[in-house]
Amino acid sequence: MMADIEAGNVNCVIVKDLSRLGRDYIEAGRLIQKTFPAFHVRFIALTDNFDSESADNNTKSLVLPVKNFINDSYCRDISQKVKSCQKAKREQGKFLGSFAVYGYRKSPEDKNKLCPDGYAAGIVRNIFAWKCEGISAQAIAQRLNELGVLSPMEYKKSLGVNYTTGFRANITAKWSTVAVLRILKNELYTGVMVQGKSEKVNYKVKKTVAKPKEEWIRVEGTHEAIISREEFEIVQNLLKVDIRPQAGEKHSHFFSGILFCADCGAPMSRRVNRYKELSKVYYICSTRNAGRGCTRHGILEEELKAIVFQTLQTHISVFLDVCSQLEHIRKMEVRFEDVAQFDKEIERLHKEKEKYLELRAGLHEDLKTGLITEADFKNFRAIYEKKYEEVKGALQKQEEMLKRLFRNGVASGVKLERFKEAMKLTELDRDTLLCFISRIEVFEDKKVYVEFWGKEEFYK
Asked: Three-class SS of residue 399?
């Protein structure tokens, strides 16, 4: 329309009301008072009874700007209400995205709830498992492309979803290192809904800005987890260090990501000594290897495996054999009676909260009919509001306790089973290593420090 106006093809613009021209009062005012007159264009707003040809100066300079400002205020008010509603839904753990993240789909019964997508969820599990094996994100992306696995975008398109993204670089989107890392760093796969990571500058500007991590809205247990919290934490720990495989190798070494020099803190480098048909694998400090100081801290791989495996078995046997430790875990397990007890208490508190709301609401009617005085009204309202807040606080604590009961029960059960399975092992494998151990440090005298998940520490 503006191009036709500037070309002289339009001499009159008619709209239903002023808001149809625009809700930005500055832009709307500029068009009506500057642009249209400059091109000799007549402007008519039917329901607002405005005609630029017959309107007097009072209407143009006073009434028109006020109406445009009201239209702008309406837009701002709607924006605030929408933001408030979205924030409330996010705090309840409801999913608000247009498209479900790869590995999930929206529930047919509730569009604000996520449920695992069988095929894509399996790919996500493979990506995490491969990372734990020591495969780099780039190698994982290459493997997925070689296997012909559809990238997240192509998979959505195959399901008939009208999905577009700015990350596509080719006609057919392929798996990339960035796409793999985006999956590996997404906490949503553990059953935690994380939203509100960015926001628009304001309702007039479409540009979005990132919000600080502490302002993100994070709600646990909103949907079924694809990846366990334990495995997710292991992967995050591995992503903090460089575990790229050596040239010609598909996997990084057995201790990659968790083996460090005890003195300088640098990762240990793997070296192979070959003599005739014999070869020995050992680790040395990467700082020393690069000629930048420190000392050798050399240790044979087989010797290190034996030390770590023996330490792990000692740790597990202590955990399982000591009755107090075992009893502690049993106490953490969820019993049906405990859950039922909390459910009854929560139900009672809900009813009590509703009762005080009704009593507080009925005070206004009693005041109008003269059943109570103004002074009684204020006293009773203060009492009911205090009771309401007390019950509300108790209800929140009960619900938090119930959630904690479930989390502790599941975690303790899983941990106990892992310990039992580990006791059956005859040699150390990488999966067991990463499940129990978070860090290994080697001293110059071959003394080894082993740090377990949960900060249990043993020396050998």
From this structure: helix
